[in-house]
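cron nightly-structures :: item 1 of 1
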Amino acid sequence: MSPVNLNLTETSIRVRLFNLLVFLLVSGFAMAGNIVLEGNYQGKNLYVRNPFAGSGVGFCTFEVTVNGSVTTDEWNSSAFEIDLSIHNLELGDQVVVVIKHKDDCAPKVLNPEVLNPKSTFETESIAIGNDGVLKWSTKNEAGVLTFIVEQYRWNKWVYVGEVEGEGRTGKVNSYQFKITPHSGENKFRAKKVDYTGVPRYSPTASYQSSSPILDFNPKKGVDKYMDFTGETMFEVYDIHGNIVKKGYSDKIDCGNLKKGLYYLNFDNSTSEFTKKK
């Protein structure tokens, strides 16, 4: 064989080997899958059920990372624990866990809810200033959750707004919300609701408003509009208890309401009116 043919053969072999290596690498990535869990550290570890690979050789998981760092957990077994306590995490810190596994099988995280933020906050103070701003401070917030602000009126707690929580446990977090008071004594509170659906409430803050007591007209035979003596939050219910209108205004457009009796919540009062046609 001539040197030229030998060189061509060696070059061809190298090209084929290179192409084979690329193929194997690409195939290896294509045959891998990821399970990604994101949340906040709550002081608990994750537990994983880890089946055999589909080929029957070895276990499904081949790598686990926490916030980008490869863990030292013993994942080469039928079940293993991802120990989050060794990653220098504070309660409430953001956590991203990636479980890398073979494509012909799938591990199962048994308790992914331990990364869900909880409504664990303690109220340091809560009050309403003369400027009409509700201010409160908290500590020990384990994860970012929204504060829901509620006002007590019409013999029930009514949603009035939201403030995004900071979710930091190592400091006192401060919040504020501009209130819209009704006449007389007002009561406000803040709450958080986590994945369990169980709310956690702040204490109630009270505020005495000097605003005049509002009224409305007409009370009977409303045609198109019903007018309040000032701007107010309102709710209108039909005789079946269905809410048909709500908002904040100094009037209600009743033009599209059917004839009949309606119940009205406004200011700090409850009443009723009739639509004539």
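cron nightly-structures :: done
Residues 1-8, 17-30 have pLDDT under 50 and may be disordered.
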